[in-house]
Amino acid sequence: MPQLDRTFSVAPMMDWTTRDYRAFARTLTRRALLYTEMVTTGAILYGSPRSRFLGHEAVEHPLALQLGGSDAGELAECAAIAEAWGYDEVNLNVGCPSDRVQNNLIGACLMGHPEKVAAAVRAMREAVSIPVTVKCRIGIDDQDEDADLERFIATVADAGCDTFIVHARKAWLEGLSPKENRDVPPLNYPRVHRLKASHPELHIGINGGLKTLDACREQLDMVDSVMVGREAYQNPWLLAGIDEAFYGVPGPAQSRHAAARAFRPYIARRLEEGAKLNHITRHLLGLFQGQPGGRRFRRHLSENGHLDGACLRVFDDALSLVPERETAAVA
């Protein structure tokens, strides 16, 4: 089975890690593992056109598809479809706390059903040759963060899963909204560290609250990989330092302006395909965060990108509002 270098990855995030964001991310890092938004098995099996859910650019690789579902047969079928579409990994979502997915036995609620997750993983692994991984929490509701997490990991690992990315918070399915579940439950990094120490044979990645490259480096002393979510989206320039810091190779962008210019041909192509400018450029709004002219850049795109007929001129004008400086990628 092929192995991916998943030392650093960008978390799957609904409405955020779209194909447009992922293509933009590749102007900043070639090596980080990127994930799709969660795609449900129903969307893949019954949605049309399938390209709406699975379409991606060659530049996005290495790229993993995150699946939402619990039926082993459907997940196996979707994993096989993902492999046929060229994805490098299939990841099962066992961490999303939203009411909608709970009602369909998708996401974090599956932490209460480790045998069901194990059956799904076993079926998916039998259907594909690419890696099958699991993203989970350290627990849900009143579960014991030690005993119940250990039972979950051991049960699913026995089914053949050797890679777990663990969001180091509980998910409270009763009493907290999905938004609150991203911040209110306290982070418990030491629990994930102990998980790795007790399972040296498994790849254990950590996710949750990581905002700097230094913080990520520190985590790699205790776990195998790091996954960054909102910070990688809201402050995308963070990605410009990934290739050098974690892989020892230069990144593709030497400045924020260079990254924006590198993305321009993609924007032009997507506009020709009928995409709306603001649907693409919304992913760049944080590119000049904290820089002179950054607010004007963001405001110009926000106020004009959604207008009928908005074209590359809007993007070019926004970029001209930011003074260009010779700045190297962050370390």
TrEMBL record:
Q: Name one Pfam family in it.
A: Dus
Catalysed transformations (reactions): 5,6-dihydrouridine(20) in tRNA + NADP(+) = uridine(20) in tRNA + NADPH + H(+); 5,6-dihydrouridine(20a) in tRNA + NAD(+) = uridine(20a) in tRNA + NADH + H(+); 5,6-dihydrouridine(20) in tRNA + NAD(+) = uridine(20) in tRNA + NADH + H(+); 5,6-dihydrouridine(20a) in tRNA + NADP(+) = uridine(20a) in tRNA + NADPH + H(+)
Q: Which residues are catalytic? A: C96
Q: Does the keyword Aminoacyl-tRNA synthetase apply?
A: no
Looking up InterPro entries in the UniProt record yields:
Aldolase_TIM (IPR013785), DUS-like_FMN-bd (IPR035587), DUS_fam (IPR001269), DusA (IPR004653), tRNA_hU_synthase_CS (IPR018517)
- Keywords for the protein's UniProt record, in alphabetical order: Flavoprotein, FMN, NADP, Nucleotide-binding, Oxidoreductase, RNA-binding, tRNA processing, tRNA-binding
For activity, the cofactor(s) needed are: FMN
Q: Where is this site: Interacts with tRNA?
A: N93, K179, R182, R295, R298
| Binding positions for FMN per the UniProt entry | P12, M13, M14, Q66, K135, H167, N207, G208, G209, G229, R230
Tell me yes or no: is tRNA processing among this UniProt entry's keywords: yes
Q: What's the family?
A: Belongs to the Dus family. DusA subfamily.
Q: Which NCBIfam families match?
A: PRK11815.1, yjbN
Q: What is this protein called?
A: tRNA-dihydrouridine(20/20a) synthase
What organism does the record attribute this protein to?
Answer: Halomonas lysinitropha
Taxonomic path: Bacteria, Pseudomonadati, Pseudomonadota, Gammaproteobacteria, Oceanospirillales
Q: What gene does the UniProt entry assign to this protein?
A: dus
